[in-house]
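Wed. Picked up where I left off yesterday with ABC transporter ATP-binding protein. The coffee machine is broken again, so keeping this brief.
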Amino acid sequence: MDKSIHPLKRLLRYGRVYRTRFWAATACSVLNKIFDLAPPYLIGMAVDTVVARENSVIAAWGFPDVTAQLVILSLLTLVIWGMESLFEYAYGRLWRELAQTMQHDLRIDAYGHLQELELGFFESRSTGQLLSILNDDINQSERFLDTGANELLQFATTVLFVGGTFIALAPGVSWLAMLPIPFILWGSIVFQRWLAPRYADVREKASLVNARLANNLSGIATIKSFTAEGFERDRVAYDSDAYQQSNRRAIQLSAAFVPLIRFVILIGFTATLFLGGMAAANGALSVGTYGFMVFIIQRLLWPFTRLGQTMDMYQRAMASINRVLNLLDTPIAIRSGTRLLPEHSVRGELIFDQVTFAYAGRATALNNLSLQVPAGKTIGIVGTTGSGKSTLVKLLLRFYELQQGQIRLDGIDISDCDLRDLRRCIGWVSQDVFLFHGTVADNITYGTFGAGRAEIVQAAKSAEAHEFIMALPYGYDTLVGERGQQLSGGQRQRLAIARAVLKDPAVLILDEATSAVDNETEAAIQASLRQITQDRTTIAIAHRLSTIRHAHCIYVIEQGQIAESGTHAQLIQRDGVYAGLWRVQSGEVVGA
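Structure written out below (tokens, as returned):
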């Protein structure tokens, strides 16, 4: 969608599915305001009845008796006040329900779309900024729909209804009473244009504060360990002050609106009071009509004083809606293919064919790299930090899109595969283990949500995790804390392995899967992994060469290209890069 389109139009396009509820809420708002404006008319008719008696407006309806006229007025009053209350309840409920529904749908749609975006999108944005959009900005739009939309509708109804009545009853006086209205509307438009960029800046500064807070709370252990509390407090204070100053600039402008409007309104009210009084004194205007006009002019003009507050809310909402809809309009770079991969039909043969890839703004990570992983075999990948090892895995999972070359699974280009099917048949144990806030069992079954307790326990035993789990206060029902912070690094790693084992994938990826465990636990996990990886395609990325020495083939990657390949024994005998790494880690003498 064209982002130059006004945000309100973009919101209305998004909200087409709510048309029925929108029009129902609009009708209730308009009808409530019409009935709310009726009492001044009744007062005017009551004065007319008492003064004009048999010549009053109601008498012209066929009721010359004053008592009958007052009874009719009383009944009309009861009906009008009752209808006003009914429609007030109706519009309040309808607008709030619509606001809550749109808020919910916007958040779910925005979050769902966010999940479909490639990893590169998240690398260029902070978590706090995205949270600001999903929470603060969507809440801001909800607040406008909850109250602001109704206020704008009732304001428009007041101007049209009362203004039309003025022109009909006293055309000679009404034009003076309504003379300020064009100036007020023009001023409102000018203020709106001045306020729009200021509130856009407010929302941007708010997202920076959120980003700083989210980042600091995630890194609180680092802050404490480096005694950087004062430094970080100053940085939060700096961002918060920028937000405060941005808000202050917007408030300084919006606060000037109401006093200026009041002064213009005074001119219209004074004109009505004086000129209408002169017309009534000269007999050109009835006393009832004059009383009605003096009373109703306030109902016409004073809502303009709230226009500034409503426009203030409107501009805040439009700035927020723009940010939410911009997120929703972010194109999805990695599209799913249509080729289905039925469960248990995948053999797991992988071919990386002349793969070239570079992260945005960085040097080439993989350069014309080719390798083959036979189905059911285990390969090891080693290399220095930044050589491109983990990039291979991310490309296989289609977290990023290839720039050149092709990756095939069982002879099928992975870009043609259904994305969920592709990722469902791959089990990935990352070196940066992420656990969700929940129980141990919840984290093991993540992605295999229907697994029973026996399957969970078996997976944990395969990952050498069962023993430490049973030592926890509530065993498999123990809460692990946010990001698993109540567990050690090695414990988190073993749960991640158990999670991948339970998934039972055709392809298993172990990216530094035992880097955080001690030597004894590593030996136990390795023994289990030999059983887990048997007849399963496995890619093991490791710095510890001992974890991949039994692989069917080991690839050494340097600067995005394969420098060496072969079995452990072959590479040791070759006395190249791998042999040098092995010598450093084991202290063995090559060839001994």
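Quick read: The mean pLDDT is 83.
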